[in-house]
What we know:
The protein has helices at residues 2-33, 43-46, 156-162, 190-194; strands at residues 63-74, 81-92, 95-106, 109-123, 130-144, 167-177, 181-187, 207-215, 217-220, 225-237, 243-252, 257-264, 268-276, 280-289, 297-309. By secondary structure, the chain is an alpha+beta fold. The longest helix is centred in the N-terminal third of the chain and has 32 residues, at 2-33.
Amino acid sequence: MIKKDYQGMNIRYISSILRTSLIVLIIALCSYDAKAQLNPFQQIYFQNPYQYNPAMAGLNQGLNLNIGFRQQWSNLPGSPKTTLFTADFQPANRVGVGLNVNDDQIGIIRQTRIMGSYAYHLPLNDRNDKLSFGLSLGVNDARVDYNKVNGDLTDAQIAQYNQLKAYVDGDFGAAYTGERLTVSGGLPNLKTIFFKESDQRFDADRLLFITLVSYKFDITTAVNSMTLSPLVAYRKVKGYKDIVDAGFNFAMNNNGIFLQGVYHTSESVGVGIGLDQRAYALFFNYDFETGSLSNYTTGSFELGLKLHLFNNSK
């Protein structure tokens, strides 16, 4: 009888070890899979700069609504997908406000970030050149989604992770915007910058700093009006080498069709096509993996919709 009890204890002990190892393995796979998420939504470069820089909130008159979805094509289970929503508005002269909601799902981990933004736009001359500053404040929460767990839901590892509470976070940004030249920079996730000891949860590939420079060239012919906007960006990412992005946006203004491409030194290339009709815009982007991750994923696609409402400017 004692021998049978001893064997039963061994079986329960081994089962506990296996469950714990499985949880660790799943989180490790999610961390590896998140490497494909090093590149943000491509729309931040051209269609929705407010997504990375609160200083761009309410830069122009009207209400801007942006909805985006990105899904990674991957042979691994629990491949990353992200949904975003942003809204920014100019309620008064020189003032902009915004709302930025981002929901990431990577394997069994789900992270939601909700930020409210305030921006001040200082006119520099009569050509509409502006120097802008912005600050965001909100909450960031990460948790294990019990609906995605295929195993023991009472495992202590899951409960311990979900005991971590949502925390207050913030972003800061500044920008110079001219008729042709744009120079901007953002410091997201301010809490992890100033309180590094507070960063306790699964947090792979977090953006620490981004700066961007773009210039607009007008190409006008007798029948067509076109715009070419080259761009260079630099990103500092937690736990990864620095990333440089170089790209362009080519817009055919007569019909609103635009084409774009961005090369990332994180070994991927993004291409996109869209339709911009001022009141609304639709765009589709695809990111091709060119490095070692191409052995595990065929890339990721991105869909976006932008609405521009209540614009009274001529």
